[in-house]
Design a protein that fits this description.
33% of the residues lie in helices and 31% in strands. Helix 1 runs antiparallel to helix 2, helix 2 runs antiparallel to helix 3 and helix 4 packs parallel to helix 5. It is globular.
Length: 254
């Protein structure tokens, strides 16, 4: 017997600022299906990576005559399996053919977003249908109908500044929707003379490749100023993301 399923479909303009619409839709889907926070965070990462990649690399060419580029997102949960289908009008691009990134020097973020998607899902398939890209990913999920706490929305920042140091506590999530503001904020600390920056990540739910890019930029800026960036109190879930992205050795983690 097939269990009941829940689905949601969202059509958004190919703009980064539109992504909050589909993030909220996924959060609602997760609540309706009693998906634990940790699993929801990973699904949000997959969603963010695939959509931001489509916007970044294809939006300039997804321009239908007399209109603006759009991306169609369909998500459903059936028999404890989450399925995400992303359709866009961009140039043909098969993410399943991209090879995993390897580095002999300090790792950088380029190309690692799709590595994270593949590491966090069970399957990823691609079709080119009627001039459109269609990417489908699936992930088996656990459903808990008791004790599910709501996720922290957005990002909260608390900081302490002393002379040339700054300690910043992050709570929530860093994704493509807020990464530029986080970069600006942390880079501003370095520019103001706080060259030794410590990020307390004990309450950070997750970060996407946009968040990793932020950390790399801030780390580079701090080192150029004669200081450095230190990450501390990573949760098990967030530390796993660093390992999956291949970026653990790019940072000082305590």
């Amino acid at each position: 017997m097939t269990s009941a399923f829940y689905s949601v479909s969202v059509t958004l303009l190919a703009r980064i600022e539109q992504m909050q619409i589909v993030r909220d839709a996924l959060d609602s889907l997760a609540v309706a299906n009693a998906i634990p926070n940790a699993s929801t965070a990973r699904l949000q990462i997959v969603l963010d990576e695939l959509i931001s990649n489509a916007i970044k690399h294809g939006a300039s060419e997804m321009r239908p005559t007399g209109g603006e580029a759009k991306i169609e997102v369909a998500m459903l949960v059936e028999d404890s399996v989450f399925t995400l289908c992303l359709t866009d009008d961009g140039p043909g691009f098969d993410p399943t053919q991209l090879v995993y990134q390897t580095d002999t020097s300090r790792p950088r973020i380029g190309g690692r977003g799709l590595d994270m998607v593949r590491a966090l899902t069970d399957s990823m398939s691609y079709l080119r249908v009627n001039g459109k890209n269609q990417t489908i990913v699936t992930k088996a999920i656990e459903q808990r109908h008791e004790g599910r706490a709501p996720m922290i929305s957005g990002l909260q920042i608390e900081e302490t500044r002393e002379a040339d140091t700054a300690t910043v506590a992050l709570a929530g999530r860093i994704d493509s929707g807020n990464a530029s503001q986080v970069t600006e904020h942390l880079s501003g600390l370095v520019a103001a003379g706080h060259h030794q920056v410590t990020l307390d990540m004990a309450k950070l739910d997750y970060l996407t490749s946009a968040g990793f890019r932020t950390l790399l930029l801030v780390s580079d800026a701090a080192e150029e100023a004669g200081g450095g960036l230190t990450l501390r109190s990573l949760t098990e879930e967030v530390r796993e993301l660093f390992d999956l992205s291949g970026l653990s050795r790019a940072f000082v983690i305590i």
